[in-house]
Amino acid sequence: MQPAQKRVKTTPYDLVSGVVRLVSLPEVCIRVNEMLEDPRINATDIGKVISQDTGLTARLLKIVNSAFYGFPSRIETVSRAVTVIGLRELRGLVLAASAVEAFSKIPNDILNMVKFWRHSVYCGVVAQLLAERCHVLHSERLFVAGLLHDIGKLILSHRMPNEMREVVSRMQNEGRPDQDIEREIFGFDHADVGGELLKVWQMPKTLAQAVLHHHRPNEADEAIMDVCLVHIANGMTMLAEQGMEVESQAEPIHPYAWQTTKLDPSIMDEVFQQAGNLFSEALESILPRSYRPY
After folding, report:
1. Shortest CA distance to 155 belongs to which of 174, 182, 177, 180?
2. For residue 17, how far is the Cα from the chain centroid?
3. Residue 71: CB partners within 8 Å, gap ≥ 6?
4. If you ran DSSP here, which 8-state letter would residue 266 be given?
5. C-alpha to C-alpha distance for 126 and 78, rounded to whole angstroms
6. b or e along 113-138 (b: 16 or more beta carbons within 10 Å of the residue's beta carbon)?
7. For 242-283, how does the pLDDT look when each residue is reduced to its tens digit (9 = 90+)?
8. CATH tag for 12-291 (out of 1.10.10.10, 3.30.70.270, 1.10.260.40, 1.10.3210.10)
């Protein structure tokens, strides 16, 4: 029997620090985030800043003109988009579009990127639908949290490819969740890495918390509602991917999340039905063409 290979000790911060330049958010995204903390800022100010990045402008206008929003007339400018959908939602869309674009530049031969982003977008759609049922203020932020909940997997796959290949192999052979195997191998999991990235990117604390605790909602002590909604959305997304009967597969979702949100599994069928059309629209609007399976 061969001796176990010695693993190099690392931390989520080490991994994020080593990759943050490669997947840095555009200056415009950082600037918009800062501007939104200033109560004197208006739609025109934000529009001028975003319009300096033509690629981001095009992606944002494509999203707000999609059926995902369903506005009756075409929106031609970013400042108009801000007026129609609001400053907070625009910050979320700027982050979502920027993050997906940033990670599209990193080669990844470990994860199936089409499946990864389909899972992420679907989770975002479901998280927002659940948030609306809970009458959460600014429920659109849950779409962004759901979209980015697994982003730590991309950093792990890029920085620790051999270990992540082992994670994938053991998942297939042992039939256990990836986060459990990651914790055995690294001492932490992709949720820890994703939460650290959003902290380094100086994103809102509620977003970082929702990503950090999406597998263990009962461990969160901040942004608890957001954490629980993303946890439920992730569990529902896995159920949808498995194509199983909802009634027999509510186990992946922690009872604490149901109790906190005051939702229950009976809402699943209705949310799945709603999510179908919205998912197609969100996928078409947000993903780079290279990630689409057609």
Report:
1. 182
2. 20
3. 64, 65, 84
4. G
5. 26
6. beebbbbbbbbbbbbbbbbebeebee
7. 865 444 333 579 999 999 999 999 999 999 999 987 888 888
8. 1.10.3210.10
| Structure-block tokens of residue 267 | 């809402």
DSSP secondary structure code for residue 3 in this structure:
P
pTM for the model stands at 0.87
- Residue 155: CB atoms within 10 Å: 25
Distance, in Å, from the CA atom of 92 to the CA atom of 80, rounded to the nearest integer, reads 16
Can you tell me which residue has the tokens 């896995």?
238
CA pair distance 66, 64, nearest whole angstrom = 6
- The span from the CA of 176 to the CA of 243, in Å, is 18
